[in-house]
């Protein structure tokens, strides 16, 4: 089974080949916690993450090696399961540095100016109970039980210091981060991830994903994580004729080829027109509006997942895309999301949750994520 190192220059879970399952959790520090509590939490989290990502229990005594008279350190449901490509990625939210003017952890002076709540976007229907948070953890694995085990145990370790604000399960990756991975499909049935930034594109990673080396040591080599919980009105979408679905996306459903022609990996030609003189790729199609050519070259690394959270009272599935993107600056996401304000797809989606976190650089062996911030 695949294992990825926890320690390294960058945190794992960004350029790592996208796994099949997600458990994402946002946490708030509990009231009256101190800077020392935060440091000890990050140390304990990093230690447990360094073990779980290698397929080990959270501690040496683990699920069954401790005293019979105490609750075990590890909850046990991953005993016998392999690491399954588990990655655990930690992020720091704006409120960790400045909570409505309160500097709870002596960090206000180190808040990167760009780390602030995202601006409001046209059509936002955000639920505060599914948005924001002081800290986030993205756990991705090829086995859902392994991802859930990670979040469950990290939440347990946080007891008394931080508690879950909201969390999300995801299945079926909606992107790819290596050329070797096939392009998956989202719940609209279209290939998703075709034009994503790939792990071997070091020029694009340096230009668009990693925070530059001239930034403070805890940030340089990190990235900004944006999460958007996007509800998809799939029952309405499923009544839309195929040609219209394709017009909205700007690509064909079978191959994912741009409507200007070619195959999946042919560059879209936004100038090409059909016999009626109209552009083959609609002006309001998702792919056109999100394309770098129309956004001063802006690109992001997408790493989202499908979700279905049961159903509503009308018997409709509560389905959607848990959109996750990594970028060296929040401005990249903001540019694209503003460009998408006229997206023809908007009739079929609604943004219901949102968050931004700075994912610090990777921890050096034996240290912890964010250590340089407290030096
Ligand atoms: C491309 C679906 C939301 C940014 C695509 C593609 C699909 C798709 C099918 C074409 C294949 C590909 O290149 O991956 C969706 C769905 C969404 C959604 C179903 C919501 C439920 C977003 C959001 C953003 C975004 C919120 C950013 C603000 C992009 C970008 C591309 C893309 C940058 C690549 C454009 C290019 O370079 O050709 N999306 N998307 N998408 N999407 Fe989305």
Report the biggest beta sheet as strand number plus sense, adding barrel if it closes: 9 strands, antiparallel
Q: Topology as H/E string?
A: EHEHEHEHEHHHEEEHE
Q: Helical percent range?
A: 10-25%
Give the CA-based shape.
Answer: globular
Bound molecules: protoporphyrin IX containing FE
Number of domains: 1
Query: Approximately what portion of the residues adopt beta-strand conformation?
Result: 15-25%
Oligomer: single chain
First CA to last CA: what distance?
A: 37 Å
Q: Structural class from helices and strands?
A: alpha+beta
Mean pLDDT: 97
Q: What is the number of E strands?
A: 9
Q: Provide the gyration radius in Å.
A: 21 Å
InterPro entries: Dimeric_a/b-barrel (IPR011008), Dyp_perox_C (IPR048328), Dyp_perox_N (IPR048327), Dyp_peroxidase (IPR006314), EfeB/EfeN (IPR006313), TAT_signal (IPR006311)
Family: Belongs to the DyP-type peroxidase family.
Catalytic activity: heme b + 2 H(+) = protoporphyrin IX + Fe(2+)
Domain Dyp-type peroxidase C-terminal: 183-363
Could you characterize the architecture of this molecule?
Residues 183-363 form the Dyp-type peroxidase C-terminal domain. GO terms for molecular function: ferrochelatase activity; heme binding; metal ion binding; peroxidase activity. This is Deferrochelatase. There is one protein chain. The chain is α+β, with helices and mostly antiparallel strands and 375 residues long. The protein has one domain. The protein is built from eight helices and nine strands. The chain has helices at 35-52, 94-97, 144-157, 202-209, 234-237, 242-249, 286-290, 330-339; strands spanning 21-29, 87-92, 135-141, 162-173, 223-232, 301-302, 305-311, 317-327, 349-359. Strands 1, 2, 3, 4, 5, 6, 7, 8 and 9 form a nine-stranded antiparallel sheet that branches. Strand 7 and strand 8 (317-327) form a beta hairpin. Helix 1 runs antiparallel to helix 3 (144-157). The chain is globular, with a radius of gyration of 21 Å. The relative contact order is 0.20. The mean pLDDT is 97. Bound molecules: protoporphyrin IX containing FE. Protoporphyrin IX containing FE (HEM) is lined by residues 186, 188, 190-196, 228, 230, 232, 249, 251, 286-287, 290-292, 300, 321, 323, 333, 336-337, 340, 349. Protoporphyrin IX containing FE is lined by residues 186, 188, 190-196, 228, 230, 232, 249, 251, 286-287, 290-292, 300, 321, 323, 333, 336-337, 340, 349.
